[in-house]
Amino acid sequence: MDLIKDVFVAAQDHFKSYRIPSIIRTGKNVLLAFAEARAALNDHAQNKIVLKRSEDLGDSWEKLRVIADAGRDSLNNPLVVKVAGTGKIILMYQQYPFTPVEAVSDPDQWKSHDGQEFP
Questions:
Q1: Which residue in 101, 10, 107, 98 sits closest to 47, CA to CA?
Q2: Whole-angstrom distance, CA of residue 83 vs CA of residue 54
Q3: What pLDDT was estimated at residue 83?
Q4: 10-residue averages of pLDDT along the chain (119 residues)
Q5: Are 47 and 36 in contact (CB under 8 A)?
Q6: CA atoms of 77 and 22, how far apart (whole Å)
Q7: Is the CB of residue 53 less than 8 Å from the CB of residue 70?
């Protein structure tokens, strides 16, 4: 098994970039990896929450699945935790309403990461 594996790779699976990964071990060898999937390189890119699952401690990963989609709204900052004693998994994230750049007073502040390239 490799020590380092790429789980979410920019420009793969129809998304421009992935940010804020969150991973948890659920069972013997099962890993769940969540991330924010972005259609563009900014915080307001109608982001989705995606999941990849591994049954061999990360040596291989299943296909990407979109597990939360709020349409034009943006979903950000996934965080996954396991409830002690029950093993239940809780995924938390933020939802921001769609706001066109024309509706904000300082468009440069709205366009975070605009023009940046992520490897």
A1: 98
A2: 20
A3: 93
A4: 81 92 91 94 84 94 97 94 92 89 71 52
A5: yes
A6: 9
A7: no
